[in-house]
C-alpha cells in the first residue's frame, strides 16, 4: 500500500506514547478493530524500535505503523528499518527529512510558524505536522491562505469535539494523542473495549459530512 495516499485517505493518526511495551500490540489491535488504519509509536516510549518491529510485523498488512518524536536522521533510519512507513517529528530537522525520503518513508516534520512550515515543505517533507495545534482551526485556515499547496496535519489538543473543525479548515488529517489513547490508564480488557469504541467514534466522525 502507498503510505502517503493511505494517510491522506484515512486522516487519523493514533499516537501511542509511553505505553508499556507489552501493551502496545493489544492497544494496536483495539485501535484496528475500531477502524484506525494509522498508528504512531513515539520513539521516547520504552523499547520503541522493538515495539515498532513487532507491531508492523503482526499488523503491517492491516495498518500503517509510523515512528513519532524522531529528532535526528539516525533515529529515522533505525525506525524505517524496524518497519515504520512514516516518520513524524515535533520539529524541523532537514537531515531527518532527507533521510526519511531516501529510505522511501513518508516525512511529517513538526512546524508552527509559516516560515518553518514552508522551509520543511521546500526541503522535501510530504506533510507538515502543525504542532502544537492549540491555536485552533482558524490558525490552520490562516496558514493555508498564503500556503494552500502545503498539506497540514495538526496535532495536539484535538478531540472528538473539534476534529472536524480542523478538517473543515483545510487540514488533510489530524494526529490524536491522549484524547484517544490514554497510556496512563491500566490496560485491561474493559479499557481495550472502550478504546475500540472510541476509535470507531473518531473514524465515524472523520467520515461524516462535516
List strands and helices in order, with pairings.
Layout lengths: L2 H8 L1 E5 L4 H13 L4 E5 L5 H12 L4 E5 L4 H10 L3 E3 L5 H9 L3 E3 L1 E2 L2 H9 L6 E2 L6 H8 L18 H6 L5 E3 L12 H19 L3
Parallel strand pairs: 1-2, 1-8, 2-3, 3-4, 4-5, 6-7
Family: Belongs to the KHG/KDPG aldolase family.
Protein name: Bifunctional 4-hydroxy-2-oxoglutarate aldolase/2-dehydro-3-deoxy-phosphogluconate aldolase
Subunit structure: Homotrimer.
Please provide a written account of the structure.
There is one protein chain. The chain is built from 9 helices and 8 strands. The protein is α/β, with parallel strands linked by helices. Helix 2 links the parallel strand 1 and strand 2 (38-42). Helix 2 crosses helix 9 (189-207) and helix 3 runs parallel beside helix 4. The longest helix is centred in the last third of the chain and has 19 residues, at 189-207. It is globular and about 45 Å long.
**N- to C-terminal separation?**
27 Å
The helix content, as a percent range, equals 40-55%
Principal-axis shape = globular
What strand order characterises the main sheet? 5-4-3-2-1-8
Structural class: alpha/beta
Report mean pLDDT, rounded to a whole number. Answer: 96
Profile the largest sheet.
6 strands, parallel
Contiguous low-pLDDT stretches (5 residues minimum) are none
| Beta-strand content bin | 5-15%
Q: So how many helices?
A: 9
Order of helices and strands: HEHEHEHEHEEHEHHEH
Rounded to the nearest angstrom, the radius of gyration is: 16 Å
Total count of strands: 8
Subunit structure: Homotrimer.
Keywords: Carbohydrate metabolism, Lyase
Pfam family, one: Aldolase
Organism: Metabacillus rhizosphaerae
